[in-house]
Specification:
It holds the Pfam family Imm32. This protein is an alpha+beta fold. It has a domain of about 55 residues. Helices cover about 15% and strands about 30% of the residues. Strand 1 and strand 2 form a beta hairpin.
Amino acid sequence: MDIDVADCEDEFEGEIKKWKEILIHGDPEGLRSFAKLLIKIANLNQENETWLPVGAREHYHLRPNIELGKSSEEVIVGRLDAKGTGDFYNSYVAKDAMEKIVL
């Protein structure tokens, strides 16, 4: 697995737009392993986990040269909702409501 951040830039009619993209690449085994981790986090009933304090969110650190390739950035994958409250963290901004797109 390799997870990297790319700085992107495009110019249109004299205006330069900059943004970042997160690139997640892996061989079939690595992608399946990542998918299993996401499903494990999604299926965890945080309310039943005595080791997780109220207000905390289950998460995993994925580190270069350990869980990820050497060229990767360190990544934290976790739940948005907090145990006991269901609150999202303060910096979270929900996406605009749109028609559901099925991938």
